Amino acid sequence: MKALLVLEDGAVFSGRSFTGHCENAGEVVFNTSMSGYQEILTDPSYCGQMVTMTYPLIGSYGINAEDVESDRIQVRALLVKEYQQFPSNYRSQRTLADYLLSNDIPGIEGIDTRALTRHIRLKGAMKAVLSTRDLNPESLREKAIAAPGMVGADLVKVVTCNDPFLWKGGRAEELKGGLEGFCWPEGQGSFRVAAMDYGIKYNILRSLEKRGCSILVLPAPTDSETIDALAPQGLFLSNG
Questions:
Q1: Average pLDDT, stretch 12-21?
Q2: Residue 15, phi then psi, degrees to nearest 5
Q3: Same domain? 165 vs 47
Q4: Is pLDDT of 216 > 80?
Q5: How does DSSP classify residue 59?
Q6: Which of 35, 87, 169, 234 is deepest in the core (most CB within 10 A)?
Q7: 174-202 confidence digits (pLDDT tens)
Q8: Helix (H) or strand (E) holding 17
Q9: What is the mean pLDDT of residues 77-98?
Q10: Number of domains within the chain
Q11: How far is CA 11 from CA 25, 61, 79, 90, 126, in A?
Q12: Phi-psi region of 50 (alpha: psi -120 to 50; beta: other; left: phi over 0)
């Protein structure tokens, strides 16, 4: 079905939705990676943004349960030149369209991604509205202008974990009972690290674990007294 992307400066780009009806607002940015779209979708750095993939064919290897950088999709929309609806990869467990649809995230193909990328590269990232319901460019531009911007937004509050968790065996493990009475696991790692989650990527935690660290991930609002009481040997401040 037809979809329109209208930027706040009035630029209009048309495409087709491969995830059904939608209307969403966000800041439009681009990514030049040839692969890794699942990691991009779940990267907290892209929270609140519509990501344009410059590589022309996206979706060819599907989606699996391992290649994620957080516990949910972070982007507001995925914009591609061409979507491959029949993935071929031994690790694939579902299609990209199914993944986006189940998380209520729009996926649009047929966008002139080269023109869009050049436009925002020259003019800078800007707000936009993507819709299959409202196809009036002027109406969508007004919505884009009225949409909340990224400047001054407390995105850390949005992306940080709600509760502390242990990173163990390549996965997040819930702390039963929270931090009260917490003891570092014996034998898990030789170096105890408290990691502050300001939008941390799972691959950072995987890398720390591979290097022999026992990792406790803490929500961004955690105070210094609480951290001191945990007696970590290292404090890691994540990207955000």
A1: 97
A2: -165, -165
A3: no
A4: yes
A5: -
A6: 87
A7: 998 889 888 898 876 689 999 999 999 99
A8: strand 12-17
A9: 98
A10: 2
A11: 15, 32, 15, 40, 11
A12: beta
